[in-house]
Amino acid sequence: MPTRLSHLFLRTLREDPAEAEVTSHRLLLRAGYIRRQAPGIFAWLPLGLRVKAKVEAIIREEMMVAGAQEVHFPALLPKEPYEVTGRWDEYGSGIFRLKDRKDADYLLAPTHEEVFTLLVKDMYTSYKDLPVCLYQIQDKYRDEARPRAGLLRGREFTMKDAYSFDVSDEGLDVSYQAQRDAYERIFARLGLNYVIVTADAGAMGGSRSEEFLHPTEVGEDSFVRNASGYAANVEAFRTVVPASIPLDGLPAAEVFESPNTPTIASLVDFVNTNHAHPTGREWTAADTLKNVVLALTHLDGTRELIAVGLPGDREVELSRIEIAFSPATVEAATEEDFAKNAALVKGYIGPWSLGGPVLGAEATSKVRFFVDPRVVDGTAWITGANLHERHALNVTAGRDFVADGVIEASDVREGDPAPDGSGPVEIARGMEIGHVFQLGRKYAEALGLKVLDENGKLVTVTMGSYGIGVTRILAVIAETNNDEKGLIWPENVAPFDVHVIATGKDEAVYEAAEKIVADLEAARYDVLFDDRPKASPGVKFGDAELIGVPRIIIVGKGLVDGVVEVWNRRTGERRSVPVAEVLSHLS
Amino acid sequence: MPTRLSHLFLRTLREDPAEAEVTSHRLLLRAGYIRRQAPGIFAWLPLGLRVKAKVEAIIREEMMVAGAQEVHFPALLPKEPYEVTGRWDEYGSGIFRLKDRKDADYLLAPTHEEVFTLLVKDMYTSYKDLPVCLYQIQDKYRDEARPRAGLLRGREFTMKDAYSFDVSDEGLDVSYQAQRDAYERIFARLGLNYVIVTADAGAMGGSRSEEFLHPTEVGEDSFVRNASGYAANVEAFRTVVPASIPLDGLPAAEVFESPNTPTIASLVDFVNTNHAHPTGREWTAADTLKNVVLALTHLDGTRELIAVGLPGDREVELSRIEIAFSPATVEAATEEDFAKNAALVKGYIGPWSLGGPVLGAEATSKVRFFVDPRVVDGTAWITGANLHERHALNVTAGRDFVADGVIEASDVREGDPAPDGSGPVEIARGMEIGHVFQLGRKYAEALGLKVLDENGKLVTVTMGSYGIGVTRILAVIAETNNDEKGLIWPENVAPFDVHVIATGKDEAVYEAAEKIVADLEAARYDVLFDDRPKASPGVKFGDAELIGVPRIIIVGKGLVDGVVEVWNRRTGERRSVPVAEVLSHLS
After folding, report:
1. Where would a tag sit more exposed on chain B, N or C end, judged by fewer CB atoms within 10 A?
2. Where would I find the Aminoacyl-transfer RNA synthetases class-II family profile domain in this sequence (chains A, B) (predicted)?
3. What does each C-alpha distance from B199 to A162, A384, B195, B203 come to in angstroms?
4. Residue A215 belongs to a domain with what CATH number?
5. B17 contact A CB<8A
6. What is the ipTM for the molecules in this complex?
7. Into how many domains does chain B fold?
């Protein structure tokens, strides 16, 4: 049966809705695919549901090829497994929590690692049962602080999440590759441009991790890449570490008075005026070591101050620092933090270490001190002396201070060298559309998923997790397939194969259109039929352009000459085709 | 591609799981269709998901025939619409509630009347847009006090809920009938025995309401029916009201001392001993009026005592009384309630009314008094005198007391006459599998869903709501299609069309089985292939019987003679069929 526009639950909007921030959101609302229910929470209308079902079908097909088996978990799950793995706490306010009538804790699961692990534990006992890869396509909930851009970052979204279970690391590599290959096939079939970037494990824990990013200005992830194929997300980018310098014969550190130099720029000016560079060049910000005080909040709620030293021409990048201290969160220290730590002389903080040499008599502190990878032994810096209005020259790493650790603390910039030697990188923006991830044994260990190996010994299973955002993918397709008139769906996810429009008031036209529609349906085309007797051709064409079915057939005045118009929504081309040839023309 | 048992995520259980209370639950667990996650919350394994998808496909087809269009709402919804209609409060602790990070209230929707109403309000404005019928197949959550019987009464379940929108009452009748007819077709296709019973509106409000009950001992609903086609649920059963009796000349009421007669039985004994019946027969419990004190809890939390008078041979049925006072809840009065109301002389309570004559000097009370429909004017009763150790004879309705109202207060019994005159009813137990419901204008009124009528006047839309429990239906099918060996699925919802078993160790058998499987798949049969090389025939046959695919092909020893066995799981019949004739034999 064709879907008739006279009957379809649809009302297209002429105006852009005020709530829409990005193209996909605007067009999916205007064309009647979705409707907002609450911030980041949407209902799916008939057109949207059709596209979603088609995207899901493609994913299911490729999961089957990859040997993954479909199961389905509820969104509502008990707290206990998530407490065992620590994620109940780690997710903080990012998940929805609730209690049942017996006061038991539940959550709306953000992902399902824990319960898949327990399911396999419940069912399987032997290495012979493995490998197995399970997946579901399921509605997920996360209490995002800033839901935005329609489906691109919602609080409710449909996700395909898969989990693999292997006995060996080599097995995990195979399972990982099978999902990774499936993702490449899925995105290729959906015509989605993507970059596979090395990702950092973040809150999930584990080893190999790659994100599929769709490059787009509306994306909220930054990533780096270069023409030689290097790609990583900003958190995973590793700084190229310079060679260290022998300490022998390096000039001694020298403290000097430096009134009114609380900023890097004022300090550089002051030093250029008062302390000539030995080679005669100007001092620059890159010669200074900027020491920034930050506050970690650990899972148990305790707050710990740390300091991070990085070259003065670089900016602190909290998202990169957070990786080093995950699951703790990181923020700038407050005035109150400084007030409580008298040894921290704001504006004049210098390097120190708890274990190594300390510079400045008053700098004894319980605050751990970390450095950027560029701060290798033998590098000498202009930096704070931990005394009010005092700085120091030739403060040398490995001699005057030894850090408590090295962390990626700085921003990544256009032109920074890629860690694999493939040359300078550029910065791009992207939207995460998939993620493949070697979890390793973290979850199996925590939840006791062990099987008997060939020797009858219990071994812990190793796992991977693999996610695709179904509704986000749909939005990205909409974001990249449109023009000023509306959506232009790729054929394999369009809500219908063909959109047939009957125009005018002539009964014969509608009868001929009915016949064409019936023939198309008989040939297994899914047809949207604009049979509205009172809508003008302009309204019908406008709706067709907005809805975005890629092939449109207009039955109208040409009928007296035995022809209809076949309109390619993407190219805009309209061609007269004899009625008898419509089917062969489409195929 | 066939599904291979060597690969399928499945582990059948030999023992009945302790948690299973009913057959369907036991077999769905043992055969690896579902797994418990929390009380009343289940995960779906590959076999279960296949059956569920087939049930859903049948429902979708019949919804399309009925002209209903599919949409999809999230489970997580904001409180506000549910507050406007009062359901946020009415559901009490029966729904899951939660707050987001901004402290806004949300619920996991038990049903979606409110948001469907708002969606149509958002999209449609004119009578020309109507009627429209929308539905979804969606995972719902209810915080049941006593989840039980596996999928039969879960806290999470999949439901098809449809909502119709019409301008006129006649339109609603048509929409209602279309869904009702669709339900009859769905249950017929699923081979489900059902009775359509008149139901009471209960908490939903509205007019016409019918439940589809599947008669089963494990059902939790009682209903009444008779051979003439009358059927109603117990709450909707209406008592046949006897004719009233003229008051003239009836004997006067007479108070008597009645020590130690706090129960109906002791009272009847006492009266038979001390007060002969005028006709000489024995007094019976049916001659007494039992007055029961109950406590209503209103939505706003206030507690109100009421008293209900009914013949002493009847039992109070709270579920029927609750209908009269919905959305208030009803329970028995406590000792504390009696203590606070000195006029209520426990064990000797008699009738009274706030407006009418009062029997007994101390009985002045603020407690409203209701009677059962059998207590018509002119009926005379032995009843309490509202005085300690005092009862009265010949207390006559309409003369000695006038009730504040008539309500259905008594239990329904085998042999009670049906209200339509069709004769005595019997009591049966059933499981609700569908519900069709004329909501009328309640939701549209509350949420402001109005459209312009033909005269340009705003009119309130009238609605229906129609629900089918998808996962419950699946469980009912399992409950009614099994034997001591396992499940026996009807063909159209079986997880596979054919289950092919290769037996023994002979390579040639497995090769021949592969060929048969490939031929079946080519002929569009969905095949489960037991290709496990090391499992014994006994294990394979046992698993096949447990899993319950209705047609089984055994490839084994007969192969040397060119035959396989075709096994009908339902009848148990096994027949030798030449390999070349397998396909034609199946079709």
Report:
1. C
2. 48-490
3. 44, 82, 12, 12
4. 3.30.930.10
5. no
6. 0.87
7. 3
